[in-house]
UniProtKB/TrEMBL annotation:
One of its GO terms (cellular component) is endoplasmic reticulum membrane. It comes from the Eukaryota. It comes from Ambrosia artemisiifolia (Common ragweed). It is found in: Endoplasmic reticulum membrane. This is Protein PIN-LIKES 3-like protein.
Length: 391
């Protein structure tokens, strides 16, 4: 299998993504305004609440069994390592570039959280259809590739909304004001009279402590978006796991002779719309980055270096080390997905998080524009090398 065959197989999916993304950007231009801001918002809600859960649930239900789920245990660990290493590299970048304080959460988020769902859902099936890949039959490759990508999306959503969401919150200006108000409330708690007996004084102190703990817990529950952590795609993954791993339910829904197979077929039909629609939305969102912001070019290049140079190199060491010690099975497609998780552009949902807290929204658009532009080159080269590595 020659280098040119691998390069062709790796470049075609990226080229398809670029074409559809460019169409999305064109439709989002002010002069066209078919995919304007309000339209993108409504379509994005449709993807978030309907298309993605259907896609994740139907693919996992069809391909995941109890035995295969046990064999995929390393993927959550692999994704966690991408977040940890990306955060460390992002903090080093902060020390070097010294961005504004409200942008530090954005920098850490873009360095740590890759587009673990949508990009894999686009790239992996497209790679499977190309000739010259080391993944065998295209039909089997697409089926299992979609399962790996769906599992990656579900796990990535949990990490993104539990970790990056709170990173941006902590470093945003709104968070700082909330902390100041909380401190002021703590300082205004009345002191107990010193003339009361020691037992009543101790009891009063305990009441004050309990009240403070309850108040802090309420503040934490308000700030941590638990509903976002259990996003619809995560709920879809849970449903897919239940159907795939419980044999009686699986026999009812999955297979050509299953009595309720129409439910699975309908979910697959709805889920198939997710990939092209999401790609159009990505292109539309990138238009905002053309308007520019105050973010420095060295900072943007630093984020691109973390995501496209240092993280993939770390990923090679981790995946090859896991393979050497027998932590993962020698499946070329599975290993390719694990490697690719280290080389993806930043998660697009980071833009949504910055909108929630009003911290660096325009800066995030510029970062996304540059990183996704560079991803066309980076993903092609790394995909080619990864396919050679797992062949």
């Amino acid at each position: 299998m020659g280098f040119l065959d691998l390069f062709s197989a790796a470049s075609m999916p990226v080229l398809k993504v670029l074409i559809v993304t460019a169409i999305g950007s064109f439709l989002a231009l002010d002069s066209i305004n078919i995919l304007g801001q309000s339209s993108r918002k409504h379509v994005n809600e449709l993807v978030f609440f309907v298309f993605n859960p259907a896609l994740v649930g139907s693919n996992l239900a069809k391909t995941i069994t109890y035995e295969s789920l046990i064999s995929l245990w390393f993927m959550p660990v692999n994704i966690l390592l991408t977040f940890i290493i990306g955060s460390v590299l992002g903090w080093v970048l902060i020390l070097i570039a010294k961005p504004a304080k409200h942008l530090r959460g954005l920098v850490l988020g873009t360095c740590s959280a890759g587009n673990l769902g949508n990009m894999l859902l686009i790239i992996v099936p497209a790679v499977c259809k190309e000739k010259g890949t080391p993944f065998g039959d295209s039909g089997v490759c697409s089926e299992f590739g979609m399962a790996y990508a769906s599992l990656s999306m579900a796990i990535g959503a949990v990490f993104l909304w539990s970790y990056v969401y709170n990173l941006v919150r902590v470093f945003s200006e709104d968070s700082n004001s909330n902390k100041t108000e909380t401190i002021k409330k703590d300082l205004t708690v009345p002191l107990l009279p010193s003339s009361e007996p020691e037992s009543s004084t101790t009891e009063g102190k305990m009441k004050v402590i309990l009240k403070a703990m309850k108040r802090h817990w309420r503040n934490l529950s308000k700030r941590v978006n638990l509903s976002a952590i259990f996003a619809p795609s995560t709920s879809g993954a849970i449903v897919g796991f239940v159907i795939g791993t419980i044999a009686p339910i699986r026999r009812l829904l999955i297979g050509d002779t299953a009595p309720l197979r129409v439910i699975q077929d309908s979910a697959s039909l709805i889920g198939d719309a997710a990939v092209p629609v999401v790609t159009l939305i990505v292109g539309g969102n990138l238009v905002k980055g053309l308007k520019g912001s105050g973010v420095s070019i060295p900072l943007v290049l630093g984020i691109a270096s973390v995501r496209y140079i240092f993280l993939p190199l770390c990923g090679i060491l981790i995946v090859k080390g896991a393979l050497y010690f027998g932590l993962v099975h020698a499946d070329p497609l599975y290993n390719f997905v694990l490697l690719l998780q280290f080389a993806l552009p930043p998660a697009m949902n980071i833009g949504t998080i910055t909108q929630i807290f009003g911290a660096g929204e325009s800066d995030c658009s510029v970062i996304m524009l540059w990183t996704y532009g560079l991803a066309s080159i980076s993903l092609t080269l790394w995909s080619t090398f990864f396919m050679w590595l797992v062949a």
